[in-house]
Amino acid sequence: MTVPSGRRERKKAATRQKIADTALRLFLERGYDAVGIRDVAAEADVAVTTLFSHFASKEALVFERDDDFEQRLTQAATGRAPHEPLIPALQREIQALVRHCTADSAAPIWRLIDESPALREYEESMRLRHAESLATAIAADPGLPQTTTACRTIARFVIDAYSLSREAADPEAAVDEIFRMIEAAWAVTCPTRRA
Fold first, then answer.
1. Which of 13, 60, 98, 139 is 20 to 30 A from 82 in CA distance terms?
2. What value, to the nearest 5°, has the Cα angle with vertex 66 and ends 13 and 161?
3. How far apart are CA 25 and CA 119, in angstroms?
């Protein structure tokens, strides 16, 4: 997450983090369905309207790093060094995200998500949105003249690599295996250049 520079921005970021931390603690203690928005707001000592100014929905409280995740992926595509291949840059980012999400401290959160149909549905819509953002970033790169379909397909593969690897017995090996397939698929779409 980017560090806010001004006092007001830092205060807003601290309030947002306090709300997210409080919500997660309550969800883990009581169960996702047993905790309401008003419970979170009261425990975090903020108004419900303040909570909603930071989070669009109850589900978003669990996925509070959603925007960060999306920015990191698009930055991996758009911020890579000139002539740096696309697929290895994306693989490094997915590897880092998988490492973060498979840490022992993340296990209770994933159990919470797996037990809630609302959270699983939200995660799926979030993944589709991330794939579209990544596809747009890839398509905007003038050095990667690909069709919209190719960009969208590779972006979906990358997002699915994250999900599949996170659930694998050996997540890092799974990332490597999946990205060999992604690299091969990408090579088929641009056989004359290494992207």
1. 98
2. 150
3. 16
CA distance 124 to 83: 33
Would the CA dihedral through 41, 53, 56, 105 be positive or negative? Answer: negative
- According to DSSP, residue 81 is labeled P
User: If pLDDT is split at 50, 70 and 90, which confidence band does 195 have?
Assistant: very low
- pLDDT interval class at 144 (50, 70, 90): confident
Taking the CA atoms of the chain, what radius of gyration do you get in angstroms?
A: 19
Inter-residue long-range contacts of 161-166, CB under 8 Å, 24+ positions, other chains counted: 161/94, 162/94, 162/97, 162/98, 162/101, 162/127, 163/127, 165/94, 165/98, 166/98, 166/101, 166/102, 166/110
- What are 129's two structure tokens? 């949105």
The Cα–Cα gap between 194 and 184 comes to: 11
Residue given tokens 């609302």 in the structure block? 118
| Separation of alpha carbons 121 and 127, rounded Å | 10
- Tokens for 134? 């990544």
pLDDT of 116 > 70? The answer is: yes
CA separation for the pair 31, 34 (Å, rounded): 5
CA separation for the pair 7, 19 (Å, rounded): 18
Amino acid in the structure at residue 59: E
Of 53, 68, 54, give the one whose Cα is nearest residue 20: 54
- Residues making up the chain, counted from first to last: 195
d(CA 62, CA 111): 12
